[in-house]
Amino acid sequence: MMLELLLNGRRLREPVEPHVTLLRFLRDQAGASEVKYGCGEGVCGACTVFLDAVAVNACSVLAVQAEGARVETVSAFAGDGSLHPLQQELIERGAVQCGFCTPGVVLGSIEAVRLGLAGDRMTIRRSLAGNLCRCTGYGKIVEAVEAYRDGEGAA
Ligand code: FES
Ligand code: FES
Question: Which domains does the chain have, with CATH numbers?
Fold first, then answer.
């Protein structure tokens, strides 16, 4: 099938097999290696992308379901040589260790703040339930999301 979508503002038109996941399409055909392959079954959140502005696990969506959609990876949120404010907060607080979970954490937390689901530490932790991090223990991530919420995210 021929698939057309907008990836980080760039129009793509690519042939794709009907069974291919959006994750596989993004990584293998579109060169979006910032979208991580963790569990492959909708558990870890490493593959989080925005599909028409809604965070989804790209491993659990078929590429053809993104036909005509706007897909954004974490790369859409950092400018040339600059980081998104949440990325900056994560780095300053030591909330990035191996970094494998970080793209998903960033997108999931941007959405949580946008939807008002980051009002206190408990709700931030709940909003992170779909983003597994094996390194940090989450404490520093929660602090970074709080700081982002209180800064740029509150705007
Ligand atoms: S790779 Fe998609 S949720 Fe884990
Ligand atoms: S920083 Fe390593 S998995 Fe989160």
Answer: 2-76 (3.10.20.30), 85-154 (1.10.150.120)
